[in-house]
Amino acid sequence: MERASRYTKGVLHIARSIPKDKLRLIVFDLDGTLIDSRADLTSSINAMLRYFKRAALPEDVVASFIGNGATMLVRRSLGDPVDEKFVSEAVEYFLSYYREHKLDHTYVYDGVFHVLEQLRTRYGAALQMAVLSNKPENPSREICDALLLKPYFFQVYGGNSFSTKKPDPEGLLTLIAEAGVAAEETLMIGDTDVDILTARNAGAWALGCKFGLSPHTLEYAMPDCLVDSPHDWSAALL
After folding, report:
1. Which stretches of the chain drop beneath a pLDDT of 50?
2. What's the pLDDT score for residue 102?
3. In a 10 Å sphere around its CB, with 0-12 CB exposed, 13-18 middle and 19+ buried, how is residue 1 labelled?
4. How many secondary structure helices (H) and strands (E) does the chain include?
């Protein structure tokens, strides 16, 4: 299908314009969408690699592995070993280290709070917001709490909240049901193809964030809209 693309107020529209006035639920990814956690994830991965006497990895390489949950992040960082017991031990070490260092350098992207306030002011109770991450649930919630994001969301789910992870739509469909809205009234915002595919699999709208940790994966995922920064969410949604 031929795609019509155009820039408007910093927003690149692809294929479809999001029906902003009909949205009743916005679900955000966490890493690379609301927060920049690249440094802390990299230091935790490299701590794990050092423990197992492996060479450290550059930050950009680790960032390219993020998006499919902790196990896949560790597996990719280790070069996809076949020894599952070794992978499990490595994941356990990584998570243990990350729990203690997850907020050393992680911060909320500039513009996020401003747009969240705008959305809350504009739509009030008519719009609900939530977080769906592939990061484990406890650190996801602790990060949202510590960085003062929690009050904006009625729910924060992680990669171990369900039997499946994104891009399986189970988590997003659960949030849609809990919010009491329809899939076509729902928008998923994320920085990887995993988030876009999750939205597609649930029948929801999808917005991609080019400023995130793995923007290269968005090229062929075909989100409904692409933005360069959280500030551009205003142009897309307000």
Report:
1. 1-9
2. 97
3. exposed
4. 9, 10
pLDDT value of position 15: 57
**Catalytically active residues, by annotation:** 29
What pLDDT, on the 0 to 100 scale, is given for residue 137?
Answer: 96
CB 65 within 8 A of CB 73: yes
Annotate 149-213 with DSSP letters as a single string.
-GGG-SEEE-TTSSSS-TTSTHHHHHHHHHHT--GGGEEEEESSHHHHHHHHHHT-EEEEETTSS
Q: What tokens appear for 62 in the block?
A: 């680790």
**Which residue, among 20, 200, 202, 37, has the nearest Cα to 115 in the 3D structure?**
20
What is the model's pLDDT at position 215? Answer: 86
Distance in angstroms (rounded) separating the CA atoms of residues 127 and 125: 5
In angstroms, rounded to a whole number, what is the distance separating the alpha carbons of residues 23 and 219?
A: 25
Among 96, 98, 93, 90, residue whose Cα is nearest residue 39: 98
What pLDDT is stored for residue 13 in this prediction?
Answer: 56
Q: At what angle do helices 84-101 and 70-77 cross, to 10 degrees?
A: 110
| Inter-residue contact 97 to 85 (CB < 8 Å) | no
Q: How many CB atoms lie within 10 A of CB 55?
A: 7
Contact 187, 196 (CB under 8 A): no
